[in-house]
Amino acid sequence: NAGVTQTPKFRVLKTGQSMTLLCAQDMNHEYMYWYRQDPGMGLRLIHYSVGEGTTAKGEVPDGYNVSRLKKQNFLLGLESAAPSQTSVYFCASSRDRVGSYEQYFGPGTRLTVT
Amino acid sequence: EDQVTQSPEALRLQEGESSSLNCSYTVSGLRGLFWYRQDPGKGPEFLFTLYSAGEEKEKERLKATLTKKESFLHITAPKPEDSATYLCAVQAAGNTDKLIFGTGTRLQVFP
After folding, report:
1. Is B16 left (phi over 0), alpha (psi -120 to 50) or beta?
2. Over the stretch B34-53, which tens digit does the pLDDT of each residue have?
3. Who's near B38: CB < 8 A, 6+ residues apart?
4. Cβ-based contacts of B31 with chain A (< 8 Å)
5. How far apart are CA A18 and CA B4, in angstroms?
6. Is B49 in CB contact (< 8 Å) with chain A?
7. Chain B within 8 Å of A23 (Cβ-Cβ)?
8. pLDDT above 80: residue A79
9. A101 within 8 A of A114, measured Cβ to Cβ
10. Less CB within 10 Å around the terminal CB: N or C of chain A?
């Protein structure tokens, strides 16, 4: 039981390049989330999903797209990376709506955009 | 606007020196308040959920309490392994799919 895993752990992109971050969970959770964490700011929600095939915008969705084609996977895409997207990205999952069930977080992906 | 403020930003304690971390919040109807621990280079790890004023929860040397405006995380006789960043988050009644996080308190416990 690996919990929540994220790929890759580190990545450096040039401005304008694209990439996809993969999140996988083996707990059969319905809800999945993508957050970014920046110094001096709390974790901010980018996008989330309440089940397979669904996605919804969070607090800071601009510049990102997501897909949840399979229940266990949640992909975060950057179509044209910008230096402002340099951050640590965390994926999380929960059995159902947060509050009723706790969120489990992955180890993070450190992204640098130059 | 829903908001969470944590203080202090950083706290240095001697091993065995008890203290408290504060999380004050402004939210339109509190559904739940959450405490997480985050070690360097890792994702947050869930500690507690509190739902109503007056509620308390304990885990080892940690005790979380909740009032109508703030929550405290009390650390009794801390050990160096308690060193971490402690995050507070709230869930608003009007938007129960997501959490609003504070910026955290970085705790260092020295032997």
Report:
1. left
2. 999 999 999 999 999 999 99
3. B44, B45, B84, B85, B86, B87, B104
4. 99
5. 33
6. yes
7. no
8. yes
9. no
10. N
Chain B hits for A48, Cβ within 8 Å: 97-98
Q: Is A5 on the interface with B (CB under 8 A)?
A: no
pLDDT in tens, B47-100: 999 999 999 999 999 999 999 999 999 999 999 999 999 999 999 887 777 889
A84: left (phi over 0), alpha (psi -120 to 50) or beta: alpha
Question: Using CA of residue B90, residue A42, residue B63, residue B43, what is the dihedral sign?
Answer: positive
Put simply, the answer to whether A103 touches B46 (Cβ < 8 Å) is yes
CB–CB contact A105 B43 (8 Å): yes
B:90-109 residues touching chain A, CB 8 A cutoff? 91, 96-104
Residue A69, Cβ neighbours under 10 Å: how many? 9
Cβ neighbours of A39 (radius 10 Å): 7
Q: In this structure, what token pair is assigned to residue A108? A: 């993070």
Residue B100 and residue A42: Cβ atoms within 8 Å?
yes
Contact yes or no for B91 and A98 at CB 8 A:
yes
B38 within 8 A of B85, measured Cβ to Cβ: yes
Picking from B32, B42, B101, the nearest residue to A42 by CB comes out as: B101
